[in-house]
Design a protein that fits this description.
The protein is mostly helical. It is built from twelve helices and no strands.
Length: about 425
């Protein structure tokens, strides 16, 4: 998603979207960080919706509601990326979108009941505010922001007035409209200048918010339990899984993604493929795992059943598979270790359905720890080899010796962290 359709002011334009003509490094503002607090609550609400209905239909319903929540956050992030928002007008605008996001979060539990109109109207309000913040940019109506106001927002409001089945269909159409807009308006967005440091930081923060929900999924259930040895063991195993997911992104992938956007010939394409689409899948996977935690920690000796295992193992599998997608989109390389681990996770899911929850958690924790150890060893070996090391098969970055200049004049930080095994 981006703001402009045609040309824009100097701060919102760049000729090719590549490494030339770098702008000053842009940092996340305090207003954006405060805005994120609303989406901490919103993700908790989406998790609650999925917790109560996690069959196939429940998964679709939760995803259809999650997309406008996520897209509201994305729209604000892109607007803040291409403009200087550290001023009174834009601070108030971000807070107004935050209020609309809070209304959306409050509507989520009853989205398929009496609060459907509230969800749609709040989303439409958020999109309208974002459009008004960018109204001075020529062609803004003929782009994703205009599509949000003219198409997806009205679809969500009308859907909220309909019975359950037609409502889901119309909301799914609205979600697809939003997701397709950056692709449909790809040519128009070619002139938009994205700040390479700000975008990766913002999406990493969103994923951190989603990972925080996994901690809530552990602690919220455990706080009311007896906390005997089995339950404490389940908490430890669940936390190890959450930490393993964090490690996969923040130790290995985050630097690779920032590097990719810095050196890309077209930042527009990297932003769309890796951040807007890729992080939707990453966050969805983490939310699935978080909801699965709530089912496992409650009774460590009880068999979970297909639904809870699908959330826990399916969410983890989706998370790992997404790194295969992002690595291919960034560097046209196969993330063999993560794709292999995803295959093992998804293959194990049917076999653990009848096992106690504690065993299910421990098995997944051991697998993630093993994956991180393998990738760490590969990174260390690559960093300690000759000046032209062979990258490990799971590595996210191209092979560049530590300290060597990268395209655009920057330097690759010392291994192992920069020789990412994503």
């Amino acid at each position: 998603m981006s703001a402009t359709g045609d040309a824009g002011p100097p701060e919102a334009r760049r000729d090719a979207g590549g490494v030339g003509g770098e702008a000053d490094e842009k940092r996340v503002t305090w207003a954006e960080l405060y805005f994120d607090l609303v989406f901490v609550f919103a993700i908790t609400q989406v998790s609650g919706l999925l917790h109560h209905h996690h069959d196939a239909t429940g998964l679709v319903r939760a995803l259809v509601v999650f997309v406008p929540v996520y897209w509201c956050w994305v729209g604000t992030t892109v607007q803040a990326n291409i403009r200087d928002v550290d001023n009174l007008r834009d601070r108030l605008g971000i807070l107004a979108v935050g209020l609309a996001g809070l209304f959306m979060a409050l509507a989520v539990p009853g989205a398929y009941g009496g609060r459907g109109v509230l969800l749609g109207a709040a989303y439409w309000l958020a999109r309208l505010v974002l459009l008004l913040l960018l109204i001075r940019l020529p062609g803004v109506w003929r782009g994703p922001y205009g599509a949000g106001v003219l198409v997806s927002g009205p679809l969500l409001v009308v859907g909220g007035l309909l019975p359950d089945g037609p409502r889901l269909a119309l909301w799914a159409a609205a979600a697809l409209c939003d997701l397709a807009a950056p692709l449909v308006f790809r040519r128009r967005l070619a002139a938009v200048a994205y700040h390479p440091s700000h975008m990766p930081e913002r999406f990493a923060l969103f994923l951190l918010v989603a990972l925080g929900e996994s901690i809530v999924g552990i602690g919220g259930t455990a706080a009311g339990a007896r906390l005997d040895v089995a339950e404490l063991g389940a908490v430890a195993a669940a936390f190890t899984i959450s930490a393993g997911l964090w490690w996969q992104y923040f130790v290995y992938a985050a630097d690779a993604m920032r590097y990719a956007v810095e050196v890309a010939d077209s930042r527009r394409d990297v932003v769309r493929r890796i951040f807007q689409y890729g992080h939707l899948a990453l966050a969805a996977g983490v939310i699935g795992v978080a909801v699965g935690f709530g089912e496992t920690v409650a009774d460590p000796w009880q068999a979970l059943g297909p639904g809870s295992v699908a959330l826990l193992y399916g969410g983890c599998g989706l998370y790992l598979l997404t790194f295969g997608y992002t690595r291919w989109m960034m560097f046209r390389k196969v993330a063999t270790t993560r794709l292999g681990a995803a295959a093992v996770v998804l293959g194990l899911a049917p076999a653990v359905v009848r096992l106690p929850a504690l065993a299910v958690l421990v098995a997944l924790a051991v697998l993630l720890v093993a994956l991180n150890v393998v990738e760490h060893v590969r990174v260390v070996r690559a960093a300690g080899s000759d000046p032209a090391p062979v990258a490990p098969s799971g590595s996210a970055l191209p092979v560049v010796p530590a300290g060597a200049p990268l395209p655009g004049g920057s330097a690759l930080p010392s291994a192992p962290s920069a020789a990412s095994a994503e």
